[in-house]
Amino acid sequence: MTSIAMPARRVRERDRSESLRPLALAAPLLVLLVFSFGAPIFALLSRAIYEPTIANALPRTAEALRTDGGTGVPGDSAFLALAADLKQAQAAGAVFEFAKSLNTRLPGARSQVLRAARLASQDQAASKEAMIKAAPLLGEPQSWTAIRSGVHPFTSFFLLNAFDLKWTNDGTIGAVPSGQAVFLRVFGRTFLVATLVTLATLALGFPLAYLITHLRPAMAAAVLVLVLLPFWTSILVRTAAWTVLLQKYGLLNDLLLWLGLTSDRLELMYSRTGLIIAMTHIQLPFTLLPIYSVMRSVPPSLMRAAQSLGARPFTAFWRVYLPQVIPGVLAGCLLTFILCLGYYITPVLIGGASDQLISNFIANYVNAELNWEMAAALSFVLLASTLGLYVTMTRYLGLDLFKMG
């Protein structure tokens, strides 16, 4: 038994060492992906739920609010604690960051917080009345609702705001005022544009892919080269070209007038129509190529066999050919739809003010408003929607993009 067990153990050890070799070869690449891709994304997304600025600036106020235990405007002890915290933040140079963070939750609070901080630096024992006189917002319940939610480093404020929701004064979740409710509308616009572009690329790509599979090899190769031309230029160059074509006195309007399709020049620039045209041109290869790769694998003899058995051409196409190419159609549409969700350059250059997508808002929060928390929350919702869509397609429709080809 011992002589038999020893070789078996050696075989298992050898198999284990051989299975670890590919992992060891890929280890440098995995480490690079973790530190250059995974870690930055995790660090950004974590800011959607972790924002310790207010908690770090108001430790005494947080303790006083826990002792107070009520809702609405607290008593004198909380105001004394707030004055002490503001004086310390002013001395440490952190009051501006605190005011900016509170202003994100409570628009208009920044200037009033800075006035209250100046008062507290002169008199740490400033009374409740004096603090409210310096910063009238401190006398309103919604201000303390924002402070109470901010004294906890982990917060749901930004994720709720991404859905146009907020915590109300009585501790429940409610809708933000209609004038501030923008994100659901922007998400809806983003998904609508992505859907329209996906359908447009499918309407153009499916018949073109079918045509290519039935052309002679030389002609098919030439058509494929024309389809792949957009891949050889940057998206910025392609979008800039469309800004020339879509002008009121551009080539597209000239062509429509020459063909007699319109009687007047169309306003295609800075419009949703122009945006969809440009995005369709850019995304067409992403829809066409998966469909074409699957169509090539369908034997032509199947259609001839179906027709020889009495099926009409449309019936043979619908019941024999189409079910076999559906995976390619779904893969191409899913790929195009996901890519369209993250479009940024094309909506900026071609779309109008009412055609900006969610990626434009994320970029604005990062570059202009420096509100990384809100940018992280919107990014988290967009990423979760994309992953949810992909999981749904793979689980319930049996689609796997990694196995297409």
**What fraction strand?**
under 5%
How many domains, in number, for the residues? 3
What name does the CATH topology of the largest domain carry? Answer: MetI-like fold
Which stretches of 5+ consecutive residues score pLDDT under 50? none
Helix content: over 70%
SSE series = HHHHHHHHHEEHHHHHHHHHH
What does the main sheet amount to? Answer: 2 strands, antiparallel
CATH superfamily of the largest domain: MetI-like
Q: What layout of secondary structure does this protein have?
A:
Layout: H1 2-46, H2 53-57, H3 59-68, H4 76-92, H5 95-105, H6 109-122, H7 128-134, H8 141-150, H9 157-162, E1 165-167, E2 173-175, H10 183-213, H11 217-228, H12 235-245, H13 251-259, H14 272-295, H15 300-308, H16 313-341, H17 345-349, H18 358-367, H19 372-396
Antiparallel strand pairs: 1-2
Helix pairs in contact: 3-4, 4-6, 5-6, 6-7, 10-14, 10-16, 14-16, 15-16, 16-19, 18-19
Folded structure, characterized:
- A hairpin with a 5-residue loop joins strand 1 (165-167) and strand 2.
- The mean pLDDT is 83.
- The protein starts with a helix and ends in a 9-residue tail after the last helix.
- With 405 residues, it is mostly helical.
- The protein contains 19 helices and 2 strands.
Structure at a glance:
The protein is mostly helical.
